[in-house]
Design goal:
This protein has about 140 residues and is mainly α. The chain folds into two domains: about 15-90, Arc Repressor Mutant, subunit A (Orthogonal Bundle), CATH 1.10.10.10; about 95-135, no CATH class. The protein is built from eight helices and three strands; from the N terminus they run ααβααββαααα. It is globular, with a radius of gyration of 17 Å.
């Protein structure tokens, strides 16, 4: 079922942030976008890079990313079918955002030694470590 999209982005000061996050809010969308930063990938190449995603879920996430204009899907008339996915210019414009998310995750996982503390939202990371992460370009 398609999600409602913002028609106007002037509804409140945080509305554009909400609209932006809605484009990448799927469980696997951010990871798919990150992997496509390396270049064009076929469906099964993406599946191998995301071993915990089901075929149906990956298909749905890819369709939503395509609908939102972040990725392009190219189908070759072959048997068996060959389908490639790549970032559009709009999707490529998310590269600094994805790099910042990765840097933030690297800093927090490295500091806590446990990826689950990032997911749980624990805020036990010293501010000096955050300052160091910011100085590194984040």
């Amino acid at each position: 079922m398609p999600r409602m999209r913002h028609r106007r982005l002037d509804c409140s000061p945080g509305c554009v942030v909400e609209a932006t996050l809605s484009l990448i809010d799927g469980k696997w969308k951010g990871v798919v976008l990150y992997h496509l930063l390396d270049g064009t990938l076929r469906f099964n190449e993406l599946r191998r890079r995301l071993p915990n995603v089901t075929q149906r879920m990956l298909t749905n996430q890819l369709r939503e990313l395509e609908t939102d204009g972040l990725i392009a899907r190219k189908v070759y008339a072959e048997v068996p079918p060959k389908v490639e996915y790549s970032l559009t210019a709009r999707g490529r414009s998310l590269e600094p955002v994805m790099a910042a998310l990765k840097a933030w995750g690297d800093a927090h996982i490295a500091l806590t030694g446990n990826p689950s503390t990032v997911a749980s939202g624990r805020d036990d990371v010293p501010s000096s470590a955050l300052d160091a992460a910011r100085a590194g370009g984040v």
